[in-house]
Request: fold
Amino acid sequence: MISVGIIGSGNVAQHLISAFLKAPEIDLVQALAREQSHLTHLLHIDKITSDYKALKEVDLYIIAVSDHAISEVSNHIPFENKLVAHTSGSVAITELNPKNRQAVFYPLQTFSKNKEVDFNSIPICLETSEQSDCRILEQVAYSISSKVFNITSNQRKSLHISAVFVCNFVNHLYKIGNDICNEHQVPFEILHPLITETAQKVMMLSPDEAQTGPAKRNDTTTINAHLAMLTDENQREIYKLLTKSIIDNGKKL
Amino acid sequence: MISVGIIGSGNVAQHLISAFLKAPEIDLVQALAREQSHLTHLLHIDKITSDYKALKEVDLYIIAVSDHAISEVSNHIPFENKLVAHTSGSVAITELNPKNRQAVFYPLQTFSKNKEVDFNSIPICLETSEQSDCRILEQVAYSISSKVFNITSNQRKSLHISAVFVCNFVNHLYKIGNDICNEHQVPFEILHPLITETAQKVMMLSPDEAQTGPAKRNDTTTINAHLAMLTDENQREIYKLLTKSIIDNGKKL
Reply:
């Protein structure tokens, strides 16, 4: 059994707690949250503290807090030479206080409060400052996921940027599609199969092979008709920039 | 049995032919293609013609050709008062020659040559210039799909624009994510679960509820770190514009 403590009570912390509670190899000893009440639906109150002095000794502390708070939280851990990992895609491993052994435990997924996730298919990207900590971190990762990767800080940063494009920005395009549907009293549900197919297709074809649409065909008649119909200036700007980018990319192929 | 003829040999025409061949209610009488060889893997050569004069009389002609060719193709049909539908999301129903009864049969999906699709879950959007043709068009649509919608020309155009955002532009963002991964020797496959989850999430939560990421949190530290790491000017422009759009939207909520 590997003993684990979680620091934090946001989306990532809560999803990790749920996953570890189901993992027989893991003893989730304690969670630390400023507001204990945020976690009482998941853990018995005895296992939640808001006081760093009450933090118990465990094999691995996972800091799942906002990026800007990671460094300070790591200063508060009242131990030395313990294994401490943060869960951020963009924060350097060296932001963690070096009095403990630094590590990263980055689950690459989008977590929302009201949507359960199947942790087993979530890639977990690991990094340790000491090579000898690699194995225990892998054990913890494999206890909740079948997809575990050792990657460098630089690779993790690039993954995080990619994730912004393929998740955060993609969701924003869904939002614009939804807005346009609402404006014309068309149910957004008509687009669900297209959204699913577009996501599935890019796992079987390269994004270049999968590209379709007026910009790909350089179909200026349709592009101009769309621009004539779009009245929202922000939507028009995004339409123009992404269309130009697809056309320019087509010239390179 | 409803007899159907298809004009065209591109992605949409081929996927429609495959679907109609499996539909017991439909008699696919003939397909017309400039190059008969494009369809011989799907249909017996006797059922393919390249000559409009050889076109047989059927209950419904479906014109599945490029948008700009629809009008001309409809002129070539050597009959009158027949039901003729095009399959485009953006072309007006009135582009079809009015010597025949005009209709639209628009399957809202992204079709690629090397990727099979399950037609049954593809929404088909219908429009007819004569109300009395509505029923036969619905019968044909329901013979291959369980999702059939009667929508107006204007609604169809708005759907087509939405589809550009949630499919064509989304795929282009996948491409950028893929490029960034390649640049840093990270397998794009690590992002597949995130892509799937992002698409699934928007079917259970509204896009506003589903939005996550640095722009949503107005996390300028991470945004600036990402911009510092992105060297491609086009990627930077897209990053900036979509980040700004998400931040501006957050202010409205």
User: Anything to note?
Assistant: The longest strand of chain B covers residues 26-32. The radius of gyration of chain B is 22 Å.
